[in-house]
Write a structure and sequence with these properties.
The complex is a heterodimer. Chain A has one domain: NAD(P)-binding Rossmann-like Domain (Rossmann fold, 3-Layer(aba) Sandwich), CATH 3.40.50. Helices cover 34% and strands 24% of the residues of chain A. Chain A contains nine helices and eleven strands. In chain A, strands 1, 2, 5, 6, 7, 8, 9, 10 and 11 form a nine-stranded mixed β-sheet that branches. Chain A starts with a strand and ends in a 10-residue tail after the last strand. The relative contact order of chain A is 0.15. Chain B is of the alpha+beta class. Chain B folds into two domains: 47 residues; 87 residues, Ubiquitin-like (UB roll) (Roll). Helices cover 36% and strands 17% of the residues of chain B. Chain B contains six helices and six strands, in the order H-H-H-E-H-H-E-E-H-E-E-E. In chain B, strands 1-3-2-6-4-5 form a six-stranded mixed β-sheet. In chain B, helix 2 packs parallel to helix 3 and helix 3 runs antiparallel to helix 6. The radius of gyration of chain B is 17 Å and the shape is elongated. Classes of the chains: A alpha/beta, B alpha+beta. The interface between A and B is large, with 47 and 27 residues.
Chain lengths: 238, 157
């Protein structure tokens, strides 16, 4: 059985998630005979990333992240995709059966991923995001050409009608201005909640067919994690 | 809590009196809590008690909407009649059970706006489906005000 995993964004969340998935996949049962983790990001690691991200050298985030993990987890084939995801390359990156982790910081890219997954027969999109001390993780699952959970755009107006830009549409200065202070622990929490979803997808057949959790919200200050179902129903079809 | 105090009435109280009132309201405080903070907490507690006949905070990870939430022991602890009338209201990571059947989404939004930190743009969903402000809630309904996704940015919402 093949596991096709795509991590979009190797920033604070994606760079935390990749080693978690690598370690877990390294020791999965042999039934998974091919495990591929593609990491996509067009951005570079630089000194300013150090407070929240672990990297061995400066350079493209996708390349730096995958080269380190290839050595550590040889059973997993880590593949760099050193570009921002755009309408022109999204279908090269994400194919049938993929489990996609969206760890980006803009709704335009989230919408692109959401819409693309919506064209596939079988795929799962796990989107994570955070503000300073809170955030959420969403699960959009397609099975047999049908939605089994609601898409991101069906639930979240800000994703359906994004007011921001994808990083490939911005210059360096604009990208720098768009960034905001973040908390390392919030990034780690998002990555951990995404890993919960991955664990359920790979161990629980019932969850894998129809995820019973469509969204997690967390709030570090309140000390809460709140799971919410997002079952797709006839009334929600576009 | 028998008497509701206005902000000005509370402002005229001594710190000791405020502490007595806070204790009656179930407000938590310690020796370092300032008088102004006590007043805010008391007002908030009064507002929550007014908004709902009963407001019972749910433990983390006990959401509804198809998720089997309450374990058997807690179900047995609930008052049977009130349990049937409860509506679960969620916003982000926060979740409350309220007795509010017959009220509209708009009424609950206003009543719980501060308690659940409900933003103006948060879209309501009842039992998982998009709802409008005039939707009337029934016992057992689950109402969610969808908090926007985290976007790692300090934009106002």
């Amino acid at each position: 059985m093949k596991l096709d995993i795509v991590i979009v964004g190797a920033g604070g969340v994606g760079s935390a998630l990749a080693p978690m998935l690598g370690r877990y996949c390294q020791y999965l049962p042999p039934v998974f005979d091919e495990i591929v983790v593609t990491v996509a990001d067009g951005d570079n690691y630089e000194e300013g990333n150090a407070p929240r991200q672990l990297f061995g050298r400066f350079g493209n985030k996708a390349e730096v992240t995958t080269e380190a993990l290839l050595e550590e987890f040889p059973r997993v084939r880590f593949v760099p995709f050193p570009e921002y995801v755009t309408p022109d390359n999204v279908d090269m990156l994400i194919g049938e059966g993929a489990i996609v982790f969206s760890a980006v910081d803009n709704h335009t890219t989230r919408k692109l991923l959401d819409k693309h997954v919506g064209t596939l027969q079988d795929a799962t999109l796990v989107n994570g995001g955070n503000d300073y001390t809170d955030g959420n993780v969403q699960v959009y699952a397609r099975r047999g050409g049908r939605d089994t959970t609601l898409s991101l755009c069906q639930v979240h107006e800000e994703t359906a009608n994004p007011a921001d830009k994808s990083p490939h549409e911005m210059g360096c200065e604009e990208r720098a201005r768009a960034s905001a202070p973040q908390l390392f622990f919030a990034n780690q929490t998002v990555a951990t909640l995404m890993s919960w979803v991955f664990y359920l997808l790979t161990t629980d057949d019932t969850f894998a067919r129809r995820p019973s959790i469509g969204e997690f919200y967390f709030d570090m200050v309140a000390g809460r994690v709140n799971p919410i179902a997002r079952n797709a129903s006839a009334e929600e079809k576009e | 809590m028998n008497k509701r105090f206005t902000r000005s009435e509370l402002g005229a109280k001594t710190k000791l009196e405020l502490r007595h009132i806070a204790r009656d309201c179930g407000v938590e405080f310690d020796n370092g809590t300032q008088g102004s903070e006590l007043i805010e907490r008391i007002l908030q507690a009064q507002q929550q008690q007014q908004a709902t006949v009963e407001v019972k905070a749910q433990p983390a990870g006990m959401a509804r909407q198809g998720i089997d939430a309450l374990d058997d022991d807690e179900e047995e602890d609930d008052d049977d009649v009130q349990g049937e009338k409860k509506i679960t209201v969620q916003c982000g990571a926060a979740s409350l059970d309220v007795i509010a059947a017959g009220q509209t989404v708009a009424q609950l939004r206003e009543q719980l706006r501060e308690a659940l930190n409900i933003g103006q743009a948060f879209v309501p969903r009842v039992n998982g489906l998009t709802a409008n402000a005039n939707s009337v809630l029934s016992p057992g309904d689950s109402l969610e005000f969808v908090k926007p996704s985290g976007d790692k940015a300090a934009r106002s919402r």
